[in-house]
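Revision sheet: C-alpha cells.
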Amino acid sequence: MIAYGFSEYGGPETEYFLDMPIADPGQGQLLVAVHAAGVNPADWKVRAGNRKDTVQTVLPAVLGREVSGTVVQVGTHADGFSVGDHVFGATAAGHGAYAQYTVLNASATAHKPANVTFAAAATLPVAAGTAYDALDQLALRKEDTLLVLGAGGGVGSAALQLARADGIDTIGVASAGKREWVTSLGAEFVESGDEYAERISTGPNGVLDLVGGATLRSVAPLVRAGTRIISVADPVLAASLGGSGVERNRSSDAFTRLAELVASGVLDPHIGHTFPLERACDALALVETGHVQGKVVIEVG
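Predicted:
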C-alpha cells in the first residue's frame, strides 16, 4: 500500500511517501480500507519529536491518528464488526492514518451512521473526542460557564458546540481573526493577547485550556473555589492551579455518541479543507501554520 509518513524526527523535509505491506489485524483489531483521515496539530508534533514520551513510534512511521473507512478483515475477538462495515476510529499503536489501509482496535472503533459522511466521521476521534472527554471530566451543569482558551481550533470549536448543547454558557478566547467563527458557535468572544483575562466579565465554573503557558497562567485570578481546570496543552501548569490534563477515553461508546451528535445536527465538524492522499504534505503544512479554521481532511481512494 501507499502511505505518507516520516523517516526521522524533524521538519517537513523528513516526510515522504512509503511503499509498505498491508498489515494483518491482530487479536481484537480490524483492517480498514481508509476513505478519509483527519489531520491534526498532534501529527506534526509527533513528526517533530515533541511526543516521544507519549506516542509509540517506530521509524519510518505513518502519520495521523484518526480515520474512517470500510472493514476488509476482522481479527479474532473483534466482536461486533464484519467485513464491509463502514466505521471510524483511532488507529492502533504503530499504525497511521495517512494511508490506503490501516489497523484499528475494535475497542476504539465505532460504526459510521449512514447520514454522516466519511470525511466528517474521520474528524471525530482526536479533536472532537478530546473535547468530549474534557467536558466529561469538567462535569459542568446547565447554566454553568465554560471558558475555552484557544477556542478557534478543532478541539475548541467542538467544545463550544458540545457545551452549548448541554445548556452551558461559553466564553471563547482566540485571535482577532476568529471572532466571527467563535461567536457563530454561540460563545462570548474574548480576544487573546496581553491582559485578556481582564476582559472576561464572568468568572468561569470550568476552564478548558488548549494553549498553555502564559495564557493559562493569566487565568489564575479568575479561578475561584470549585472552578475546574483541564489543560490539553499544559497539564503540569494546570496541576499547579488545581487542575489536570485530559484523560482520553477513545472508546467505541464515546465515538458512537459523537457520531450521533453529528447525525442529529448538534455537532458540526466544520471541514474547511480537503486534500487527496497525493497532497498529504500540503494538508499537514496547512495545519502546521496554526491558522486553520475548521478541520482538514485527507480523502483516500
